[in-house]
Amino acid sequence: MSLFLDNAATSFPKPESVYRAMDAAMREVGVAPGRGGYRQSLAAARIVYEARSALARFFGVRDSSRLIFTHSATESINIALNGLLKPGDHVVSTSVEHNALLRPLHLMRTRGVQVTFVQADHFGVVSEREMAKAIRPGTRLVAMAHCSNVTGVVQPIAETARLAREAGALFLVDAAQSAGFLPVDVGAIGIDLLAAPGHKGLFGPPGTGILTVAEGLRLEPLLVGGTGGNASSPEQPEEMPERLESGTINTPAIAGLKAGLEFIETTGLETIRKKEKALVDQLLVGLRAMPGIQVFGPPHGERGAAVSFNAAGHDPAALGYLLDTGYDIAVRSGLHCAPDVHRTIGSYPAGTVRVSPGYFNAEGEIEFFLKALREILAGKR
After folding, report:
1. What is the pLDDT of residues 234-260, one digit of tens each?
2. Which residues pair with 182 in a beta bridge?
3. CB 13 within 8 A of CB 360
């Protein structure tokens, strides 16, 4: 049995209830919601409604219709940016963003949107002071990741939300690495747009994501088409969530996402976070004790569940290969779809080895990984 330590990419395995919920939705429901008045279609609508309501509560969204389902956090970000920004708008972001945000922002630049990227320090931490200096009168949007998929840095989003609000700007948060690991309340923090995937910390299947849209904020839809209602009009509905949800929704996947969220709520977010933090701490202690190992990210303080390192004289890709082929350990090597992070922390262009434990890992597995790494570095593999 392989050892999976790439939960920052996709959590694995999923809770058993997720597999059962998806199987039941396929076998017993099997249709899309809103496409008929018969019992199967109504059952599908109930699954989607309950999942939407539960996720809205979890993220502090008062009106569940303001939470839409997408296929990924990447799609959520694209819907937000394309639906909001116009030529001449100004956006503030950072030098430590994932391509899910970085590439759409670069596309917006080609369409006449001005973007300022605030430089993080060599740990990957963004200064509140530097963010404040970059925000100017007329700034339309501040957009940033809550937690880095490379360094595990947790950015000060509450403080940044306050800066954006005081400047009259909107605030978008990429919660790909924090959703299901850190508490995120969009109302309490002041987040106008929250993008999150379902397949990472929320324990849902791949191909699921959410976007929350603050009340009173109107986005132009990225896609238009069938919504299951208002069929007589050629215009896209104004009502949410239909305005931003066109096409056949993936009911089995949403059933799985709902089951993943129920697992979090039953287990306790703090319980999950405490266990994952203990595994990360064990990993950090072990790595820092090895000669020639450079661990990236903050030396202390709060961090997410992703740990990146390099070993002197060893290519990250080669280390990942040896861990896989010699020990059946799955880690990720390279740039992790975040090249600007590596430029910031000094690991470009080779990238890093990233280890990301999850809730279903155990202390013995972390020790096995550390032992395997020591053997590789000692030339025994």
Report:
1. 888 899 999 999 988 899 999 999 999
2. 179
3. yes
- Locate the DSSP E strands across 152-277: 170-174, 193-197, 209-213
Angle at 316 between CA 315 and CA 322, to 5 degrees: 90
Specify whether the CB–CB gap between 319 and 379 falls below 8 A.
no
Q: Which single residue is written with the structure tokens 């450079």? A: 294
pLDDT in tens, 269-324: 999 999 999 999 999 999 999 999 999 999 888 899 999 999 999 999 999 999 99
Domain range summary for the chain, segments of one domain joined by +:
3-12+268-377, 17-267
CATH of domain 3-12+268-377: 3.90.1150.10
Which fold, 17-267? Aspartate Aminotransferase; domain 2 (3.40.640)
Check if the beta carbon of residue 330 is closer than 8 Å to that of residue 6. yes
What does the alpha-carbon distance between residue 70 and residue 213 come to, in Å, rounded to a whole number? 13
pLDDT digits (tens, 9 = 90+) for 313-362: 999 999 999 999 999 999 999 999 999 999 999 999 999 999 999 999 99
